[in-house]
Write a structure and sequence with these properties.
Layout: H1 2-6, H2 11-45, H3 49-55, H4 62-89, H5 104-109, H6 117-135, H7 137-150
Helix pairs in contact: 2-4, 6-7
Bound molecules: zinc ion.
Length: about 150
């Protein structure tokens, strides 16, 4: 009985998640604007840096790393904004795929999560097979050839 109650979304939990999300929103926004002025400064003092970055991929350049961090921050910002929108619309904590309630413990770890555990697992399985196929196309060709022979 008690564990079920703990596991249900209520107004004070919503408040708690809203605060958490707002805190990460301001943190990520600060990172992004700091990074933007950083990159603008680099472009100003060293206009060829961006070209170098694209042309010489041998070394993992500092600029490259910063771009990736920036991309990651931008993606996080979108997720956090999406979660705050869901709070405002009153559908926070529900799976975007199957509309079941997402486990509170899961939301505690990552309040911006949009899928329940089983839908997330499904998605990761699809992504994994897609990625391994894209990264290593020869393997799947070979694999299919073997399957064809046995058929
Ligand atoms: Zn689901």
């Amino acid at each position: 009985m008690r564990s079920r109650e703990v596991n249900r979304m209520n107004a004070s939990l919503i408040n708690h998640f809203r605060k958490t999300l707002e805190a990460s929103l301001s943190e990520v926004s600060q990172n992004i604007s700091a990074m933007k002025s950083d990159l603008a400064l680099i472009a100003e003092v060293q206009p060829t840096a961006f070209l170098d970055c694209a042309d010489h991929g041998k070394e993992e350049s500092d600029l490259n790393t910063r771009f990736r961090v920036h991309e990651h921050d931008t993606a996080t910002l979108k997720k956090v904004q999406g979660a705050l929108n869901r709070i405002n619309r009153g559908c926070f904590g529900r799976c975007a795929e199957c509309d079941e309630e997402i486990d509170i413990r899961r939301l505690e770890v990552q309040p911006s999560v949009t899928l329940c555990f089983s839908c997330q697992e499904d998605e990761e399985r699809i992504l994994r097979s897609y990625r391994s196929g894209a990264r290593n196309p020869s393997w799947s060709d070979e694999h299919e050839a073997v399957l064809d022979l046995s058929a």
